[in-house]
Amino acid sequence: MTNIRKIVLDEDKIPKYWYNILPDLPKPLPPYINPFNGQPIKPEDMERLFPKECVRQEFSNERWIPIPEEVREVYRIWRPTPLYRAVRLEQYLKTPAKIYFKYEGVSPPGSHKPNTAVAQAYYAAKEGVERLTTETGAGQWGSALAFGCMFFGIKATVYMVRCSYEQKPYRRILMELWGAEVIPSPSNRTEAGRKILEKDPNHPGSLGIAISEAIEDAITHDRTKYALGSVLNHVLIHQTVIGQEALEQLKQIDEYPDVIVGCVGGGSSFSGLFWPFYYEAYVQKKAPKVPELIAVEPTACPTLTKGIYTYDHGDTARLTPLIKMYTLGHDFTPPPIHAGGLRYHGDAPTLCLLVKEGIVKARAYNQVEVFEAATIFARTEGLVPAPEPAHAIKAVIDIALECKRKNEPKTILFLLCGHGLLDLKAYDDYLRGKLPPYEYPKEKIEESIRKLKELYPWLEQIPY
Ligand SMILES: Cc1ncc(COP(=O)(O)O)c(C=O)c1O
């Protein structure tokens, strides 16, 4: 078995269905709440913003959702993605653990994000939408949406968090190459952006602000809708091609993970990996093992480890419904760490529910220890990880070293959800000792949540 380095599936093994966890959650998901009347949001309320089929999937209790042939046809460009065994990393760590990773960096934009971008662009085009707006942190999601829109002949407008826009010009160029318009956020294009710039013309931006701008742009223009790259159920559903393929790949070599690890920004890539295992092990109870599920986040944006489980908005200008999630407060401005995709104040409500129920465990690391781990990985396995999945690598190394101490030959599976070839500036800063180890202060989180409770005193009374 040690001779196996990678497992590659044939194209006909690209899944034909996405898996939806909603009918299989341990408790019903708390509904999205309309901030104007405190009542649950109805699907119709979301149709102005999102393509209708995405809204249908958002509220669907169907366990298996067919993947349209047109979407599978685009998936064929890079799917199925390989599953690797990190033998050289195991040898370097001298661990008895076996480390496997599913690699999504082979997609043209370089991450898992096109799994949903292609689907969202397809559904939008099919209902006659001419333009999709969105936000992007690191530029991974924006480039994935630009890529998806290009295949179905619609325009993409991407509001890119200003500090990433400046740190990562190559992703902007990639988006423009695929035909998208890219605007640094906060911008003068929207009311939400102008308000922020009035107070601070040099504001570094945040995902929360960029989301507000993209939503405002969509609702103030005809034939324009909005696409989100994480957090919502339909987005996570589209990512389950990852876990379904990984299950099949591990089965081919008679393996099953004891531990599944992924980084979490909004929770879509990690959920895409672990949901199909959750279904088999926790719901059907048919798996040979019940894997431990570990979500990893930055100490600079510690949503799951230090946030509060309550209703909050998904964006800074409070345009989104209230979502029950672990949150750092919608006015959270994270320090400008390099893992731009992990700088979001909330998380997917399904993932938050599973954390609350103790099914998923969370841990946080600072960016210095994360880049140290990423460097070990690059120097053993050769692949350069994006800063986001480097958080998962740090956790995997810790777990593998614990296996060494306890002499436990565990099987670890993690998601390498993107490559870091457009993040070399971050590696440069790390190699030159210029990366600070940010930790977000607890008092600031408490202050944000206190402000939220003052804004909506009735929040405590909502029965969910
Ligand atoms: C490479 C990469 N990984 C992870 C994330 C975090 O998002 P999620 O938790 O939804 O996978 C992002 C978000 O932009 C990303 O670009």
What structural keywords apply?
464 residues; alpha/beta; 2 domains; globular
Helix content: 40-55%
Parts with pLDDT < 50 across at least 5 consecutive residues: none
Overall number of domains:
2
CATH class of the largest domain: Alpha Beta
The radius of gyration is: 21 Å
Question: What's the N-to-C terminus distance?
Answer: 48 Å
SS content category: alpha/beta
Average of pLDDT: 94
Strand order of the largest sheet: 1-4-5-15-10-11-14
Report what the structure shows:
The chain is of the alpha/beta class. It has two domains: 7-16 and 78-110 and 240-459, Rossmann fold (3-Layer(aba) Sandwich); 18-61 and 113-233, Rossmann fold, CATH 3.40.50. The protein has 19 helices and 15 strands. The protein has a seven-stranded mixed sheet, with helices on both faces. Strand 6 (131-136), helix 6 (140-151) and strand 7 form a beta-alpha-beta unit. Helix 3 packs antiparallel against helix 5, helix 5 packs across helix 6 and helix 6 (140-151) runs parallel beside helix 8. The longest helix is centred in the C-terminal third of the chain and has 20 residues, at 387-406. The radius of gyration is 21 Å and the shape is globular. The N and C termini lie far apart (48 Å). The mean pLDDT is 94. Bound molecules: pyridoxal-5'-phosphate. Pyridoxal-5'-phosphate binds next to helix 6, helix 13 and helix 17.
